[in-house]
Design brief:
Keywords: Membrane, Transmembrane, Transmembrane helix. Helix content is 48%, strand content 3%. With 132 residues, the protein is mainly alpha-helical. The chain has one domain. The radius of gyration is 18 Å and the shape is elongated. The model has no long low-confidence stretch (mean pLDDT 90).
């Protein structure tokens, strides 16, 4: 990849917001290797967790993502099963909680990425690292 690395590419591929090259996480999104957030970017040396407790703010982002996902899953369930009534209550409940469980790793990863890339004004992209 030559030239300037796009912000969208860095967000989708979980790259450092400072250099947009180094990986933020170890491990895969789904799999046996549990994903962990790296402390420092291996490419540019940027601290990922800027200060102690920095990622507590990611809980709010994750909450918003989870609410949106629950609404989407509820709407799809409504289209497939029909309105929420006594006989469809457990179907709705099981489908919504299954969706939350399946999407948990996505929420964990992308809530932190959104916090770093979009909601952190102190981390600026340096195109210099694209040339290195």
């Amino acid at each position: 990849m030559s030239g300037k690395t796009s912000k969208l590419y860095a967000i989708v591929h979980a790259k450092c917001p400072h250099c947009r090259r180094g990986a933020i996480f170890t491990g895969s999104l789904y799999g046996w290797n549990i994903q962990h957030t790296k402390e420092i970017c291996a490419h540019c040396g940027q601290r990922i967790e800027i200060e102690p407790g920095y990622f507590y703010a990611a809980m709010y982002v994750s909450y918003a993502m989870n609410v949106i996902e629950m609404l989407i899953v509820s709407f799809i369930t409504f289209l497939l099963v029909g309105p929420l009534e006594d006989n469809t209550f457990w179907t709705y409940l099981i489908v919504i909680f299954t969706g939350c469980f399946i999407l948990y790793p996505v929420n964990y990863r992308y809530s932190r990425i959104i916090l770093l890339h979009v909601l952190s004004p102190n981390i600026k992209y340096k195109p210099y690292y694209d040339k290195v």
